[in-house]
From TrEMBL, chain A:
PROSITE patterns: ABC_TM1 (PS50928). NCBIfam families: PRK10913.1 (NF008160). It comes from Skermanella stibiiresistens SB22. The chain crosses the membrane at residues 35-55, 103-129, 149-176, 222-247, 268-289. This is Peptide ABC transporter. GO terms for molecular function: dipeptide transmembrane transporter activity. GO terms for cellular component: plasma membrane. Keywords: Cell membrane, Membrane, Peptide transport, Protein transport, Transmembrane, Transmembrane helix, Transport. It is a multi-pass membrane protein. Gene3D superfamilies: MetI-like (1.10.3720.10). Residues 101-290 form the ABC transmembrane type-1 domain.
TrEMBL record, chain B:
Keywords: ATP-binding, Cell membrane, Membrane, Nucleotide-binding, Transport. GO terms for cellular component: plasma membrane. InterPro entries: AAA+_ATPase, ABC_Ni/Peptide_Import, ABC_transporter-like_ATP-bd, ABC_transporter-like_CS, Oligopep_ABC_C, P-loop_NTPase. It comes from the Bacteria. This is Peptide ABC transporter ATP-binding protein. Belongs to the ABC transporter superfamily. It is found in: Cell inner membrane. GO terms for molecular function: ATP binding; ATP hydrolysis activity. The gene is dppD. One of its GO terms (biological process) is peptide transport.
Automatic annotation (TrEMBL), chain C:
It is a multi-pass membrane protein. Its main location: membrane. GO terms for cellular component: plasma membrane. It comes from the Bacteria. Residues 96-321 form the ABC transmembrane type-1 domain. SUPFAM superfamilies: MetI-like. It is found in: Cell membrane. This is Peptide ABC transporter permease. Gene3D superfamilies: MetI-like. Belongs to the binding-protein-dependent transport system permease family. It holds the Pfam family BPD_transp_1_N.
Length: 303, 326, 337
């Protein structure tokens, strides 16, 4: 006999099987059209990023000296050879944007992973240790949150020196307190609950309590925060790139593309428009997804 | 001519899951200076009925009635503006949750004087004098100093007194009290109920007292309507209702009164809950929970049968000896 | 109320001390020799180096150095710019009004548009208006404002020629700085046309800087309003026979504003981050542009002092927001529970 048929036999006839947690989650999530649209966009952008070398017609740094500032194909003087036109040194904007997607998503992944990992561990420590350790960690968070995130990132880049890697480190540090606060708050609520007490009484060690008993119960807000963290990371990295403190030319990063396009605002609208549009669409997609996840995971909104 | 005359009132709400009929063809009449009790469990449509009378049904609700007259004026044909002139002035309401029914951002005085400002042509000083008077009437000590209190500084009983002061501020001819004592401590409940009845007697206003507590009705109302799942299942003068209930639901509610259960091993309860949007039964709406259910009850919808002194929505009304009062 | 202010104030002191630690560390962490960085001289002789080092107290233990730094900060001495040789505090005070003017106009723009839109969306919940407003506001929230600025310049300055591209006022005018706010100063001066020049320079930057706060305020107002509209006291207000407008504008709004004010207060940090980008793009002579330039010029005393001052301002504004919150919410003002 298979397991499934045993379950069937056990269940009273006619009662629908309760939906699996994942199925239930998808049910709520799929009701939110914006969130689904965001997910679709993210999948497309991710595919473009992964397959960048196959999709993009040219190398992002290849310069076509006879096609400088060529407009997109539907404008007069444009051609399908450069569908979104070329920039001031004759690079294909379409190829640069596709490769930029790769960078932006990479930035998102690295920043979120780094800040999530460190932030959660600090939050767990603060929540479990309480006392002086807790105060020290939370004070540190307060200090970091007292400064505008971009300013703090600029200070950190000023210390480390401008580069894409340092920009990612700076942004990770800046967003980290959010995860710490979130985890700590969740840990403190969870710790007072009976199941944790039970687990403690039955002799679970601190590590086990932290990662196996408590952490899985605060994943929902962390997932939402991490999704929204992608959009912050992409936006801040682009801002730093725009200010010349992030990715350096000729890296096809969207923000630094905009920085070098600034002086052509009046002559070639396309060099300014498309990289920014790419940032906006990607960030919007992550925000839509984050909102949708929040609604689908928030038990308060469930019936 | 009755003060309030309602025939075949229905209130429907459109929700995502479909249309839900919260009130299903009820008739209500209230005479000038009369106390009418409306009894039923949570979800029986009592509150929705009163909100419909007040004209406070939200946008997703639809109110239909064959007749809906207040003091000879057809409420259905009034414009919203005309309707608002009645609401809060001639018809006023006291709600169940005094602690959340007062606006936390405004002082007690402001909230009382607001009705006066809207409905009565009074100057500032006059309004203040009247507000102090009202607070005195509802038994709030040191009323002058209370005017500048904020709701969070008041206890539940105090808040309900303020709500009552607000409701009677423009001398309403009909006061609807929707479970006015449910959220309060037992000791306070009696005080508030007595206050309401005193005010009703002194001012000769009509009072609709909505409650799920048969005991409260026994002490106060002259006539009682029992509601179940949006329908009126029994109408009767209070005295007869308690001695000769005809509908099994009324009987069961009475049996659930603690003072009637003296000598029994346990307090009788009514199994199950009031049907909601998804589980309305065929036939009599009470049939799944009824101890005297017959086949006919499961098949046919029951009209309200008049009898001497009242009416009951039952094919097989209880006899006096029908296992209830015994 | 006084105790409330005092507790709030005592809470920000440790945070401020933490920020001084950060700025104190900053100049010792940036690449390069601190002596040369602070003196603004490169390639100096060893004797001069030792002399300066002793003069700046860099030979003393770190704790002593920090003590000296704090003492200087308290006296208002934040060092001097290695480029212009003027005290950092003076430069800050000269440029600060420009940033305030821009930020205040941006937040006013965001509030004047965001609050009513949020209220209407809540009242007409589920309508086409509601859905489109929420879509637009999420787009605004996701906006890379440096790109948004370029687009607006492209449209309004380049194509339509309505607004100037950069600066605070046309070079034709010279306005006596009285308050530091050009909108006010230009009205006080005799120069005809100065005010409209200042205004036309301000519009685009203010819109750019106000975009994200506008989106946040509209969304927050909507959700806060929706919550309040379902409260029992709104039913009470309607049961009094009040007109719908009065119920919404007085009873609901007053309660709904409490969380919105907090959110507006939290926008101060966002606003400042935005000001860095906006000022850089529009060549707006304010604090944001000053700080970015200090990084590229390696003018670290300016960065150090500027960061400390910005942090202090933001903390003060947050304190003010907390106090406003107390005024709006009687439960806090009266210390009740």
């Amino acid at each position: 006999m298979t397991v499934e048929s045993q379950i069937d036999a056990a269940a009273p006839a006619g009662t629908p099987r309760p939906p699996s947690p994942l199925g239930e989650f998808w049910h709520y999530f799929a009701q939110n059209k914006g969130a689904v649209a965001g997910l679709v966009v993210i999948v497309i952008v991710s595919l473009a990023a992964i397959l960048a070398d196959l999709i993009s017609p040219y190398s992002p740094i290849e310069q076509f000296r006879d096609a400088i500032l060529q407009p997109p194909f539907w404008e007069e003087g444009g051609s399908l050879a450069f569908p979104l036109g070329t920039d001031d040194v004759g690079r294909d904007i379409f190829s640069r944007i596709i490769h930029g997607a790769r960078l932006s998503l990479l930035i998102g992944v690295i920043v979120v992973t780094l800040s999530l990992a460190i932030g959660v561990i600090l939050g767990l420590i603060a929540g479990f240790a309480r006392g002086v350790t807790d105060v020290a960690i939370m004070r540190l968070c307060d200090i970091m949150l007292a400064l505008p995130s971009l300013l703090l990132a600029i200070v950190i880049v000023a210390i480390l020196g401008p580069s894409l890697t340092n920009a990612m480190i700076a942004i990770s540090l800046v967003v980290l307190p959010h995860y710490t606060r979130l985890t700590r708050a969740a840990v403190i609520t969870e710790l007072s609950k009976d199941y944790v007490v039970a687990s403690k009484v039955s002799g679970a060690g601190v590590m086990r309590l932290m990662f196996i008993t408590v952490l899985p119960n605060c994943t929902a807000p962390l997932i939402v925060q991490a999704t929204l963290g992608f959009s912050t990371a992409i936006l801040d990295a682009a801002a730093l790139g725009f200010l010349g403190l992030g990715a350096q030319p000729p890296t096809p990063e969207w923000g630094s593309m905009l920085a070098s396009a600034r002086e052509f605002v009046s002559r070639a609208w396309w060099v300014v428009t498309f990289p920014g549009l790419a940032i906006l669409i990607t960030v919007l997609a992550f925000n839509l997804l984050g909102d949708g996840l929040r609604d689908a995971l928030d038990p308060k909104l469930k019936r | 001519m009755p003060l309030l005359d309602i025939r075949n009132l229905s209130v429907e709400f459109s929700t995502r899951a479909g249309t839900f009929r919260a009130v299903d063809g009820i008739d209500l009449t209230v005479d000038e200076g009369e106390v009418l009790g409306i009894v039923g469990e949570s979800g029986s449509g009592k509150s929705v009925t009163s909100l419909a009378v007040m004209g406070l049904i939200a946008n997703n609700g639809r109110v239909v009635a064959d007749r809906m007259d207040f003091d000879g004026r057809d409420l259905r044909t009034l414009s919203e503006r005309q309707r608002r002139k009645l609401t809060g002035k001639d018809v006023a309401m006291v709600f169940q949750e005094p602690m959340t029914s007062l606006n936390p951002c405004f002082t007690v005085g402001f909230q009382i004087m607001e009705s006066l400002k809207v409905h009565e042509n009074m100057g500032r000083a006059q309004r203040k004098r009247r507000a102090i008077e009202l607070l005195e009437q509802v038994g709030i000590p040191a009323p002058e100093s209370r005017l500048s209190s904020f709701p969070h500084q008041l206890s539940g009983g105090m808040s309900q007194r303020v709500m009552i002061a607000m409701a009677i501020s423009c001398n309403p001819r009909l006061l609807i009290a929707d479970e006015p004592t449910t959220a309060l401590d037992v000791t306070i409940q009696k005080q508030i109920l007595d206050l309401l009845l005193d005010l009703q007697k002194d001012r000769g206003m009509a009072l609709i007292l909505i409650t799920h507590d048969m005991g409260v009705v026994a002490e106060t109302a002259r006539r009682v309507s029992v509601m179940y799942a949006g329908q009126v299942v029994e109408n009767r003068p209070a005295r007869d209702l308690f001695t000769h209930p005809q509908h099994p639901y009324t009987g069961a509610l009475l049996d659930a009164l603690p003072e009637r259960a003296i000598g029994k091993r346990r307090l009788p309860t009514i199994p199950g809950v009031v049907p909601g949007i998804a589980d309305r039964p065929r036939g009599c709406l009470f049939n799944p929970r009824c101890g005297f259910v017959q086949d006919k009850c499961r098949r046919e919808a029951v009209p309200l049968f008049p009898d001497d002194g009242g009416s009951a929505r039952c094919f097989y009304p209880l006899q006096v000896t029908g296992g209830v009062a015994a | 109320m006084f105790r409330f202010i005092l507790t709030r104030f005592s809470l920000i002191i440790p945070t401020f001390i933490g920020v001084t630690l950060l700025t104190f560390a900053l100049i010792r962490l940036v690449p390069g020799d601190p002596v040369e960085l602070m003196a603004g001289e490169r390639g100096i002789s060893p004797e001069r180096h030792a002399e300066l080092r002793a003069a700046m107290g860099l030979d003393k233990p770190l704790m002593v150095q920090y003590g000296t730094y704090i003492a200087d900060v308290v006296r208002g001495d934040l060092g001097q710019s290695v480029v212009t040789r003027t005290p950092v505090l003076d430069e800050f005070l000269t440029l600060f009004p420009a940033t305030i003017e821009l930020s205040v106009c941006a937040i006013l723009f965001a509030m004047i548009i965001g609050l009513p839109l949020g209220i209407i969306a809540a009242v007409k919940r589920g309508s086409v208006f509601d859905h489109s407003l929420m879509g637009i506001s999420l787009t605004g929230y996701s906006m890379p404002i440096f790109w948004w600025a370029l687009l607006l310049i492209l449209l309004f300055s380049v194509n339509l020629g309505w607004t100037p591209v950069s600066g605070r006022i046309s070079v034709m005018y010279w306005v006596e700085p009285v308050t530091g706010f050009l909108l006010i100063d230009s009205l006080l001066s005799d120069e005809a046309g100065a005010f409209s020049s200042a205004l036309s320079h301000l519009i685009l930057p203010a819109i750019v800087l106000g975009t994200v706060p506008l989106a946040v305020i509209a969304r927050m107002t909507r959700s806060s309003m929706l919550e309040v509209l379902g409260e029992d006291y709104i039913r009470t207000a309607r049961a009094k026979g009040l007109a719908p407008f009065r119920v919404i504008a007085q009873h609901a709004l007053r309660n709904a504003l409490i969380p919105v004010v907090t959110v507006i207060g939290l926008q101060v940090g966002v606003l400042f981050a935005g000001a860095i980008l906006t000022e850089t793009i529009f060549a707006w002579p304010g604090i944001g542009k000053w700080l970015i330039e200090s990084v590229s010029r390696r003018d670290y005393p300016v960065l150090q002092g500027g960061v400390l001052l910005v942090a202090a301002v933001i903390m003060l504004v947050n304190l003010l927001v907390d106090l406003t919150y107390g005024i709006l919410n009687p439960r806090i003002r009266h210390g009740g529970h």
